[in-house]
Design goal:
Elements lengths: L5 H14 L4 H13 L3 H9 L9 H12 L3 H14 L5 H14 L3 H14 L20 H11 L2 H10 L7 H17 L10 H8 L3 H11 L4 H18 L8 H7 L5 H12 L3 H9 L1
Helix pairs in contact: 1-2, 2-3, 2-4, 3-4, 4-5, 4-6, 5-6, 6-7, 7-8, 8-9, 10-12, 11-12, 13-14
Length: 288
């Protein structure tokens, strides 16, 4: 999982759970691996189907993380509020870790780092795993995050050592730019975002690169995760359809689906986040 070989990791988590069905760690990482592969809807279903267990935040944290990956911010914020309540209980360590992941997935990097700082103050043990958590890769280049991890690990060289362990999976600047340009061309010419079931692995396959390298291209080249990147193109397609008088006989939702969105909630939430208004209000402005 830490090496970003998510398919292989899932195989191992499945074996682990076959031996110990209540392994919270294996269950949590299995679901997170699905999200990191871009299989967000599958990841959400995975966490939603978990049983409710007192004192276990796996289901709550996982579904909140999945909603964040799907850009369903209303649902994500509801889950975050519940996780924040758990900070006042004996589950503070687990709740803090999940909140850091969720905030990062939502692009709220400052909030995530504030939580890490708070966790350091409480001396929470789970913070030691943050340096190898793939979901936090968007934070790796931020000096404040690096300093916080140095505080957690106790030595400045520790974090750098862990980074170098996975250096072979990272792209240099030239290759990053090359893949970024190729991806931009692919999105423009082939319009893969119109496939409502498109996954990170599918898109990586079209570029003929590993999924973890595509994740780096999206994170560092576009400052977006997979869902944000793909939905940005879908949003632009929707706007072009609304601008076309010949398309207006269709409903707003029908145009959203034709643009690649597969969920009314995700469409409405993402649209409002990016445009600052509802799709209906935007429609009225364009038509008038």
């Amino acid at each position: 999982y830490a090496e970003e070989k998510y398919e292989k990791a899932i195989e191992q988590f499945e074996k682990s759970i076959s031996l110990k069905s209540d392994s919270q760690v294996s269950i949590q990482y299995w679901g997170q691996a699905l999200l990191l592969l871009g299989r967000n809807t599958e990841g959400l279903a995975f966490f939603q189907n978990l049983p409710d267990k007192p004192g276990d935040l796996t289901k709550l944290g996982g579904t909140t993380l999945a909603h964040a990956a799907l850009a369903d911010m209303d649902q994500a914020k509801t889950g975050i509020a519940e996780l924040e309540s758990a900070l006042q209980t004996d589950l503070i360590d687990r709740a803090m870790n999940l909140l850091i992941l969720c905030r990062t997935m939502m692009g709220e990097h400052d909030a995530a780092m504030d939580l890490i700082k708070q966790g350091i103050g409480y001396r929470l043990p789970m913070l030691v795993y943050l340096s190898i958590e793939p979901i936090l890769k968007p934070l790796h280049s931020i000096p404040r995050f690096q300093e916080l991890i140095h505080q957690v690990l106790g030595e400045k060289t520790s974090f750098e050592g862990k980074k170098s362990r996975y250096k072979k999976t990272l792209l240099n600047k030239d290759l990053l730019k090359q893949y970024k340009d190729q991806l931009t061309q692919l999105m423009s010419s082939d319009k893969p975002y119109l496939d409502e079931n498109l996954t990170l692995r599918d898109l990586a396959g079209m570029l003929e690169i590993p999924a973890n390298q595509l994740s780096q291209v999206l994170n560092e080249g576009f400052d977006q995760n997979f869902a944000e990147f793909v939905n940005t193109y879908r949003l632009e397609m929707f706007k072009s359809k609304v601008a076309d008088p010949n398309q207006r006989q269709l409903t707003i939702l029908a145009l959203a689906y034709e643009s690649g969105f597969n969920s009314k909630t995700v469409f409405n939430t993402f649209f409002k986040k990016m445009m600052g208004q509802t799709p209906k209000a935007y429609w009225k402005e364009v038509v008038q």
